[in-house]
């Protein structure tokens, strides 16, 4: 710290010789002139003295009969005039400083985290549509607007947070896990949404079957059940009617009250599924030949440095690219990386029976898992694998129990409607 | 004779001063003008309360204190800094002598 202050103020290293250097030092200290690094070299002494002190030396030198010569000038006051002469260097220094400051006003990287079902590409496209892109001005990013827009456009996103960290735009999102389930939720949640949409309808809604099958269990909460357990239903049949008749004392219908029919109806039905696999397949075999290359890219332009040409007929290219950053968060629009081109040969292979079996069983397990996710219960399954001239086939016959029922708004018939009804 | 008496008078005064300082437990360096020499290991010497340098070479530094002379003898000695109040000497210290 002390040295830094001395550097800022500037000091000189002097050589003192003559009759009595000791007296010179004593007088200096009496005049409150700081001396340091005093070294005795026999005939002369060297020491450091502040610039201010050096200017007061004249009288002391005359009194003591010593001679003083400057050996070295150190510090900022001596450095700046020297710099003034080197104008171009100074210009470059200032220029680069301005350049960095200017560069730091742009966004050079966009980071997205927390996205599981929305892919990064989709998100980037969305950002591009909303005029958020790499290379834009930092000031132009309207974070609140962006957050709002993300929540609006992606219904699945429940929470967003965007922040600018240096030259990087960090977007964190959280997706709704329940919403993900809805896509695969099948009839049940579909029915629920339909029901909720129809909730406001004047005449209520009926619950109709979505598939053919035999009813195995039924619990009605609202409406008049029109089917029983054990009955066979066809697709489109009304299971539960939303129009509930109100009877007069003489058992004639007085009028109808309308509700949204609500019931848990489970049906058993057959589910047939077919999977196919060609007899032959193409297989990549790497020959082991590879060619490496180095690449540098600035924005969209790419510069590839490679020895010779790639003479391979088929090859895979694996590129590893890194963005250059200064310190932690100052990302620059400059990438460098390397890629490897690996040659491969395509060979036609024929599936063996074992391979086919393992592929099909994997597919079967996946399919069954997807069924179970939908809440479908598998009672029986019958899977056969056969081979014909063209391909392998897997026929899957399942007996399943699943929930059914879809709310369809009631279209009132003229006879049903009473002039004073619907209260 | 006169001179002798004066001297003894001065000495008496000194003695009295010392007794007072002792009994009042005052700091000796500021009241009596005693020099403080702090030696760290055999490399650093830190001196306060002196009047000036009498002699300076690599082998010996003689300082004029307010009451006596202090000579510091050693090898390759140099003065790190030198002000009105204190100074620091570095080098290989062999002996500190008062006379």
Could you please describe the fold and organization of this structure?
- The complex is a heterodimer of chains A (423) and B (99).
- Chain A has 423 residues and is an alpha+beta fold.
- Chain A folds into 4 domains: 2-80, Alpha-Beta Plaits; 109-179, Roll (Ubiquitin-like (UB roll)); 200-279 and 351-423, no CATH class; 283-347, no CATH class.
- Chain A has 11 helices and 22 strands.
- Chain A has helices at residues 2-9, 21-30, 51-55, 57-64, 76-85, 87-103, 120-129, 143-153, 177-184, 186-198, 353-373, and strands at residues 11-18, 35-40, 45-50, 66-74, 109-113, 157-165, 168-175, 205-208, 213-222, 224-225, 232-233, 238-241, 243-247, 253-258, 262-278, 280-298, 301-306, 315-326, 330-350, 377-387, 391-404, 406-409.
- A 5-stranded antiparallel beta sheet of chain A has the order 11-9-15-21-20, with helices on one face.
- In chain A, helix 2 runs antiparallel to helix 4 (57-64).
- Mean pLDDT of chain A is 83; it is low at 179-199 and 415-423.
- Chain B has 99 residues and is an alpha+beta fold.
- Chain B folds into 2 domains: 1-28; 33-98, Immunoglobulin-like, CATH 2.60.40.
- Chain B is 27% helix and 51% strand.
- Chain B has 2 helices and 6 strands.
- Chain B has helices at residues 2-24, 28-31, and strands spanning 36-40, 44-48, 50-56, 60-65, 69-82, 86-98.
- The radius of gyration of chain B is 16 Å and the shape is elongated.
- The two termini of chain B are 26 Å apart.
- The chains are: A alpha+beta (423), B alpha+beta (99).
- Chains A and B meet through helix 2 and strand 2 of A and strand 3 and strand 5 of B.
What is the mean predicted local confidence, pLDDT of chain A? Answer: 83
Helix-strand topology string of chain B? HHEEEEEE
Class from helix and strand fractions of chain A: alpha+beta
Shape of chain B: elongated
Task: Identify the biggest protein-protein contact and residues per side.
Answer: A-B, 19 and 16 residues
Radius of gyration of chain A: 43 Å
Q: Characterize the overall form of chain A.
A: elongated
- How many discrete domains of chain B? 2
Rg of chain B, please?
A: 16 Å
Instruction: Write down the overall mean pLDDT of chain B.
Output: 86
Determine the structural class of chain B based on helices, strands and strand pairing. Answer: alpha+beta
What is the helix fraction of residues of chain A, given as a range?
25-40%
Percent strand of chain A equals 35-45%
Summarize the biggest pleated sheet of chain B. 6 strands, antiparallel
Uncertain residue segments of chain B:
none
Main β-sheet, spatial strand arrangement of chain A: 11-9-15-21-20
Instruction: Enumerate the spans of chain A where pLDDT stays under 50 for 5 or more consecutive residues.
Output: 179-199, 415-423
Strand order of the largest sheet of chain B: 1-2-6-5-4-3
| Proportion of residues in β-strands of chain B | over 45%
């Amino acid at each position: 710290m002390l040295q830094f202050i001395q550097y800022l103020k500037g000091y000189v290293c002097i050589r003192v010789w003559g009759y009595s250097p000791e007296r010179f030092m004593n007088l200096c200290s009496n005049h409150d002139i700081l001396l340091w690094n005093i070294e005795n070299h026999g005939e002369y002494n060297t020491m450091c003295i502040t610039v201010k002190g050096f200017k007061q030396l004249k009288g002391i030198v005359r009194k003591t009969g010593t001679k003083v010569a400057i050996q070295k000038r150190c510090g900022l006051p001596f450095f700046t005039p020297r710099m003034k002469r080197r104008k171009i260097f100074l210009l470059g220094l200032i220029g680069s400083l301005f350049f960095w400051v200017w560069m730091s006003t742009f966004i050079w990287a966009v980071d997205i985290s927390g996205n599981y079902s929305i892919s990064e590409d989709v998100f980037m496209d969305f950002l591009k549509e909303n005029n958020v892109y790499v290379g834009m001005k930092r000031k132009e990013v309207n974070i609140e607007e962006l957050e709002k827009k993300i929540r609006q456009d992606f219904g699945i996103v429940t929470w967003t947070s965007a922040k600018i960290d240096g030259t990087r735009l960090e977007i964190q999102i959280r997706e709704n896990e329940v919403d993900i389930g809805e896509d695969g939720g099948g009839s049940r949640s579909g029915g629920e949404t339909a029901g909720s949409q129809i909730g406001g309808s004047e005449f209520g809604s009926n619950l109709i079957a979505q598939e053919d099958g035999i009813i195995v269990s039924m619990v009605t909460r609202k409406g008049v059940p029109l089917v029983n357990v054990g009955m066979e239903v066809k697709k489109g049949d009304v299971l539960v009617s939303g129009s509930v008749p109100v009877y007069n004392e003489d058992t004639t219908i007085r009028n109808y009250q309308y509700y949204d029919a609500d019931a848990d109806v489970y049906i058993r039905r057959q589910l047939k599924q077919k999977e196919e696999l060609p007899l032959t397949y193409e297989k990549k075999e790497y020959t082991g030949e590879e060619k490496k290359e180095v690449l540098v890219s600035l924005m969209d332009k790419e510069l590839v440095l490679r020895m010779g040409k790639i003479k391979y007929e088929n090859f895979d290219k694996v590129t590893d690219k890194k963005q250059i950053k200064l310190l932690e968060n100052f990302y620059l629009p400059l990438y460098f990386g390397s890629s490897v081109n690996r040659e491969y040969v395509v060979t036609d292979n024929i599936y063996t029976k074992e391979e086919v079996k393992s592929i099909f069983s994997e597919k079967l397990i996946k399919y069954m898992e997807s069924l179970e996710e939908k809440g479908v219960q598998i009672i029986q399954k019958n899977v056969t694998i056969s081979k014909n001239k063209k391909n392998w086939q897997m026929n899957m016959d399942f007996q399943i129990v699943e929930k059914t029922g879809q709310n369809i708004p009631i279209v009132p018939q003229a006879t049903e409607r009473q002039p004073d009804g619907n209260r | 004779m006169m001179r002798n008496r004066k001297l003894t008078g001065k000495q008496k005064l000194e003695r009295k001063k010392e007794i007072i300082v002792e009994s009042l437990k005052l700091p000796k360096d500021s009241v009596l003008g005693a020099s403080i020499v702090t030696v760290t290991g055999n490399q650093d010497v830190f001196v306060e309360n002196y009047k000036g340098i009498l002699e300076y070479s690599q082998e010996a530094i003689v300082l004029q204190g307010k009451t006596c002379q202090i000579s510091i003898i050693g090898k390759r000695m140099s003065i790190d800094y030198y002000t009105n109040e204190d100074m620091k000497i570095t080098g290989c210290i062999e002996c500190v002598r008062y006379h």
